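Board notes, transcribed. Complex of a protein with flavin-adenine dinucleotide.
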Amino acid sequence: MPPSGPFPPFLRAKLTASSMSGTQVAVAAAVAGVGAYALYLRKSASANATDKPSLASFGFHSLRLHSTELVSHNVKRLRFELPNSTQPSGLSLTSALLTISIPAGRWLPVLRPYTPVNSLDETGFVELMVKHYPGGKQSSHLHSLKPGDRLTVAPIKELSWTPNKHPHVALIAGGAGITPMYQLTQGILNNPEDKTRITLVWGVNTDSEIFLAEQFGALQKKFPDRFKAIYVVATPESSSPHPKGFITKQILEDAGLSASSEKNKDIKVLVCGPPPMEKALKGAKSKPGVLTELGYSPAQIYSF
Ligand SMILES: Cc1cc2nc3c(=O)[nH]c(=O)nc-3n(C[C@H](O)[C@H](O)[C@H](O)COP(=O)(O)OP(=O)(O)OC[C@H]3O[C@@H](n4cnc5c(N)ncnc54)[C@H](O)[C@@H]3O)c2cc1C
Ligand SMILES: *[C@@H]1O[C@H](CO)[C@@H](O)[C@H](O)[C@H]1NC(C)=O
């Protein structure tokens, strides 16, 4: 999509990039639909309760922070109140929230997507897990929020999930890129109609960054035939039970994710991670990526 309309410069730069991820497209649509200047004007609009699912409508919503919890040395869980405590968020599988803030002393708003991690059916609350990057504009802002503070968010649709469209889905995540995968895993496994099998491969820097291990462990116990999770740790502790290094072709083959095997030909591969990881998986102009080497076609791969 060519850039048009009043995009702030940083978004314009993103929009001219030849290949946009699903999220970049969704962010562009959200901004194009409303206009960048409206972000300033409607900052605190729609704080009123309604009798509809709270975040189902397009546009901006102001949410009150209910509570926070530090879940690892640099990850915080932020629990926000929805306008109507008896209604769920109304977000569809899969969705993110585009968060907007104007840091002190700046002209342009900072827009970053974060992925709700509580069940999308839960009424009254929406929860984010945010990893703090030193010097990161939005993650620092979010980590500084106190209960009672407000945050402006706009729902954005990510990959629209259709139950049973694929027999098997491979989720490959790096670091905080795990959150869309967690939302999808819960959505699939908690839907009795959906029989999709899931293989998750999550790359992290250290053992302590596997901040959803407990939640994934519970799902593995409950769905041992349908859900498998593998953690790959770049610099593991000596006692770590996990494979060491990055997510390589060998790791994915060992996880049963080679596309050349007949049973994997209808598999869908979803990727969310830092740019170097996505590049290694999806390849660059000069170099085919690990997923190409494994036999996946571009149509089988989706990037959040
Ligand atoms: C679809 C989608 C969903 C996301 N969901 C979540 C989520 O649920 N939780 C979450 O914590 N994040 C999530 N992110 C990432 C998030 O949107 C921000 O990119 C991140 O919080 C950094 O923003 P910032 O403004 O703090 O950092 P910036 O000010 O943009 O960057 C400051 C510095 O931080 C470092 N940095 C920033 N991002 C990364 C990165 N990804 N990897 C390594 N270093 C980095 C870089 O050195 C950079 O120079 C998601 C991203 C996408 C695309
Ligand atoms: C919340 O939703 C319920 C159910 O739809 C509705 O009856 C109620 O009036 C709503 N509350 C507010 C404060 O809007």
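The mean pLDDT is 87. Residues 22-34 form the longest helix (13 residues).
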